[in-house]
Amino acid sequence: MLFLILKKYNTMFNTLFSIPVFQFAAMEPRGGLAKRIIPCLDIKDGRTVKGTNFVDLRDAGDPVELGALYAQQGADELVFLDITATVEKRKTLSELVKRIARHINIPFTVGGGVSSVEDASVLLKSGADKVSINTAAFKNPQLIADLAKEFGSQFVVLAIDTRKEEDGEWYVYLNGGRTKTEAKCMDWARQAVGLGAGEILLTSMNHDGTKQGFALDITRKLSVELAVPVIASGGGGSMQHFKDVFEQANADAALAASIFHFKEIEIQDLKEYLYSHNIHVRI
User: What does the pLDDT look like over 63-83, one tens digit per residue?
Assistant: First the structure.
């Protein structure tokens, strides 16, 4: 209980000053918040998986080993998404979260199956620093406000899976990209931030797994119009793509999976590349 109280007040302090939790550690002496590089562990049946456009999943390794490796390599944060928890109507794999948390020393965001303050508390006790909510929040927006009230806004990461349709609009999808809604991405993001979401994890389904670059247009729109950090996800395939999403879309962080899982790009090499191009990252 004491741990929860301390974590709650730590989060509230950072919310008060509009500085995301843990970004203090990503500051360079010359000031300003560093751009963050975040590997993502998509979990299915206890294993890390990765697909393309949310389908054709293939095994990518043991999540505990990968998490420990990324922390050692200099990742700024780690995201764990139990991608079938909501569809299977079960809770996130808290025991696996505990195992990963024991092997890392970086901020840890966990999502999948979180639909109540109690669910979030379980993950917090298991070692999560923040929770990611998606489908449950869309169906019950009050969940965002409840979590923000209990733990502070910076504990609440709203994940949005979005797809650009033929009419040129970006629509929100639920249940791991299986269910389309008529809600537009920007509208939902604004509403969620108003309710207390402290960060947006934006995944373009059009770009996911393609390695053709991030969705710069919708990422830029959210980054410019929202007063909270935006994490770009979906499409990172080269170092240039990360440079583009930071420079052209003003993302606060960039998340990727397969290029790290299959060792196509090393995190430290990526950071050195970005730093050499005047992108403020923590080396």
Answer: 999 999 999 999 999 999 886
Q: Considering the entire predicted model, what is its pTM?
A: 0.84
Query: Strands 47-52 and 36-44: what pairing?
Result: antiparallel
Residues annotated as part of the active site: 42, 161
Would you call 98 helix, strand, or coil by DSSP? helix
Q: Can you list the alpha helix ranges (DSSP code H) found in the chain?
A: 2-16, 63-73, 94-101, 117-126, 135-139, 142-151, 185-195, 216-225, 239-247, 258-261, 267-276
Q: What share of the chain is helix, strand, coil (3-state, %, to 5)?
A: 40, 25, 35
Token pair of 177, please?
A: 């990209």
**What would you measure as the largest C-alpha separation in the chain, in angstroms?**
51
CA dist 109 and 280 (Å) reads 22
Do 137 and 128 contact (CB within 8 A), yes or no?
no
Cβ count within 10 A of residue 132: 24
Angstrom distance (rounded) from CA 79 to CA 64: 12
First to last CA, the chain: 35
Q: Are 184 and 42 in contact (CB under 8 A)?
A: no
Q: What is the CA radius of gyration of the chain?
A: 17
Residue-wise pLDDT for 257-277, tens only, equals: 989 999 999 999 999 999 999
The phi and psi torsions of 89 (rounded to 5 degrees) equal: 55, 50
